[in-house]
Amino acid sequence: MFDLQNILRPNIKNLVPYSSARDEFKGEASVYLDANENAFGSPLEQQYNRYPDPLQYQVKKRLSEIKGVPPRNIFLGNGSDEAIDILFRSFCNPGVDNVILVPPTYGMYEVSANINDIQTRKVTLTPEYQLNLEGIAEAIDKNTKLIFICSPNNPTGNSINREDIETLLANFNGLVVVDEAYINFSRQKSFIQELTEYANLVVLQTLSKAWGLAGLRVGMAFASEEIIEVMNKVKPPYNINEASQQLALQALQNIDLVNVWIKELLAERDKLVLQLKHLPFVLDIYPSDANFILVKTTDAKGIYNFLVEHGIIVRDRSKVDLCEGSLRITIGTPEENQKLLETLQLYK
């Protein structure tokens, strides 16, 4: 039976979080002399002399309307990477605990684990890029605190079988972290709707991909109120700056435009796949639910270097497990995709 208190680090249980000036006062006032800010303003057209809302309530309120999740179930981080790091720092004891990774997958899980001195146990996906449930079950022990599942997966692009993730959620007494950075491009529904069903579920999403806000660094975690309270306790007090909050709020009013972009991108993805299949050095293109495709080739390194010489940058994933000979290609604008195809046709 999952119990959050059983996996929470003892020092985090007893942690008294930093109390900022904006934590101690809620509401509006005419004179703010509590936070040692520069009362004269900012040397900018927009005023940034005041500290931002530490809990980003207005952004969470708008996200709540879009996602159908109460604000209290939302954590905002400086990119999803901050949420990943906070999960390690909250639930994993350095040098003692371990986490399960399922390569090929997003590389930041392992980097963050290494930074926090947490052992990683890798259970490679099947040749079909699905979970090896038996292997995961064998890798779990009493010190396994987190399992990271990226779906749609990076770099393979496919969605992970929903039933397999539900099996982990129902049987694992730690946290199952489902990273849905690319969910906007997928036919698979988000696991956000399952938060009330599984107390050990954490869903990661981002404004960097479909929303086109990679430069703002705003990531999201959705989980039980109890888990979100822990993450808010561990995070820095002002982890999302005022400019990012205001710009994110503006962007979140334009959901119709984003949906149009998603449809156009998916159409471009399908068109690019069809055209790439005609190239003699393309061996396979794996099914994708993301804004990129994984392309198996006869010479990934040579093709990569050839594209670099022509000013086109893709990602060489040929050294990643199960991705031998493969390039990961992000779907660009119609003009960018056409330039890519025309350049590849010159490759000998």
From TrEMBL:
Principal EC category: transferase
Family of this protein: Belongs to the class-II pyridoxal-phosphate-dependent aminotransferase family. Histidinol-phosphate aminotransferase subfamily.
Cofactor: pyridoxal 5'-phosphate
Name of the featured protein: Histidinol-phosphate aminotransferase
Pathway note: Amino-acid biosynthesis; L-histidine biosynthesis; L-histidine from 5-phospho-alpha-D-ribose 1-diphosphate: step 7/9; Lipid metabolism
Record-linked Pfam families: Aminotran_1_2
Signal peptide as annotated in the record: none
Keyword Amino-acid biosynthesis: yes
